[in-house]
Amino acid sequence: QREEVIKTEDSNMADEEMEVETPVETSEVAAPTEYNPMTALPEVLKKSLYSDGLRKGLHECAKALDHGTARLCCLAGDCDEQNYVALVKALCNEHDVSLITVPTKEMLGEWCGLCKIDSEGNAKNVVPTSVAVVVDYGEESQALNFLLQYLSSGSAE
């Protein structure tokens, strides 16, 4: 729609064209720069999912942790099987992998892409998952830089 407006204004006056283009450029640049671990983590998980660097579920995650390819581990705080929690924490400690606790299994499942997205952009049919491991972060982003800095500061669990 904006391109059509620019074309019609281009035929009338060149000065108005420049005024229209300036707000478009500033709106594209505007992005959330304030991150906390729970806002940066979904973005990092999505980018790793796109680069095929995300392992979901206990079996895949235990293999990634045991082979030493894991770089970040996410564990659901409401995981009801204590043996899972003990195994994941032990593997993370053994291989020096950072561990982040996510409040719910449903939230972690949604962030890992284990859901359907309806036409309005809402997640439907979310498959809960207790653990997810990042093997490859994918492309670098502000969220990834924040999360790595957060983990290196020792603030994570």
Q: What's the short story on this structure?
A:
With 157 residues, the chain is an alpha+beta fold. Helices cover 52% and strands 13% of the residues.
Describe this structure in words.
It contains seven helices and six strands; from the N terminus they run αααβαβαβαβββα. It is of the alpha+beta class. The strands form two sheets. Strands 1-6-2-3 form a four-stranded mixed β-sheet, sandwiched between helices. Strands 4-5 form a two-stranded antiparallel ribbon. Helix 1 packs antiparallel against helix 2 and helix 4 packs parallel to helix 5. The longest helix has 16 residues. The radius of gyration is 21 Å and the shape is globular.
Q: Keyphrases for this structure?
A:
single chain; 157 residues; alpha+beta; four-stranded mixed beta sheet; two-stranded antiparallel sheet; globular; disordered N terminus
How far from one another are the termini?
48 Å
Largest sheet geometry: 4 strands, mixed
- Spans of at least 5 consecutive residues whose pLDDT stays below 50 are 1-11, 14-30
What's the alpha carbon Rg, rounded to whole Å? 21 Å
| Content-based structural category | alpha+beta
The tally of beta strands, per DSSP, is 6
Strand percent estimate:
5-15%
Average residue-wise pLDDT: 78
What's the total helix number?
7
The level of helicity is 40-55%
Secondary-structure element pattern, one letter each: HHHEHEHEHEEEH
The shape is: globular
- In spatial order, strands of the major sheet run 1-6-2-3
